[in-house]
UniProtKB/TrEMBL annotation:
One of its GO terms (molecular function) is oxidoreductase activity. This is NADPH:quinone oxidoreductase. Gene3D superfamilies: Medium-chain alcohol dehydrogenases, catalytic domain (3.90.180.10), NAD(P)-binding Rossmann-like Domain (3.40.50.720). It comes from the Bacteria.
Amino acid sequence: MKAFIIDKYKSKEGGKIENVPIPVLKADEVLVEVYAAGINVLDSKIRKGEFKLFLPYKTPFILGHDLAGIITKVGAQVQKFQVGDHVYARPADHRIGTFAEFIAVNEADLAIKPAALTMEEAASIPLVGLTAWQAFIEKGQLQKGERVFIQAGSGGVGTFAIQLAKYLGATVATTTGTANIELVKSLGADVVIDYRKDDFEQVLNDYDLVLNSQDGLTLEKSLKVLKPGGKLISISGPPDPDFAEQIGASWFVKLIMRLLSSKVRKKAKMLNVDFSFLFMRASGSQLNEITMLINAGAIKPVIDKIFPFQSANEAIAYVESGRAKGKVVIKIK
């Protein structure tokens, strides 16, 4: 099969398409023929080696965290799926590799694709959907009537997070560029700040929850818009001691993560707000919940561009440019 291979971290080539063997199934896995794969900022960061501290992929490896496709084979212990099912998923860490014609996926990470979505639309959902779900429902416990600030509302995570927060009954503020104001408003944003003209920390105050996806300076500013007892959940770092415990890190990695997050944790404590780092995990059961919201019309995919498989490097570069409105997808089949 053809697959997009990373054979060296920080390679100037980025990655290349090569012929590799079709994966061998474990008993609890299914073989999915991949029709489309979503591209995420995470793919770029892993390709550059930015997460080697806790996600040390051994080169060469196949990149890709989102997929939509059709099951062609099932393992002996698989109970929930059968050959011919149309599915989508964000495979678990260390089991990634969706930029390929086939991938083996644990059945626990899979869900039936929303019926109304194309393969390309479905492939845009899993990682950003699970990120928003775990931020707002698991960690943030966002309640009806609360106020949430979502950074970069026109990005992949932002376009999904706005819709989920509105479904949960929250008031939503977001930042975006001038050209994307109408887009984020159409998704449900109540307060839209043009980051080219205004500083959000001068506009917002007394918010219950912030979803941080930007740099360290933006993170520190975001702490100030929270009310006492508010929560800041960061998906861009720095990783904190709780996350180190969650992944069973070594004592050395735990120490590094404690040091990396010490400044922001200290500042959060001074402001009487909560800081936590979220690195989303695979979950087929949560994807099933997301599927119901999509089928009910509460959430719709937002796709900027669809690239052919052979243009995977170009597609990743487009995501890295920060210009994408919603998600970027590569069409595998």
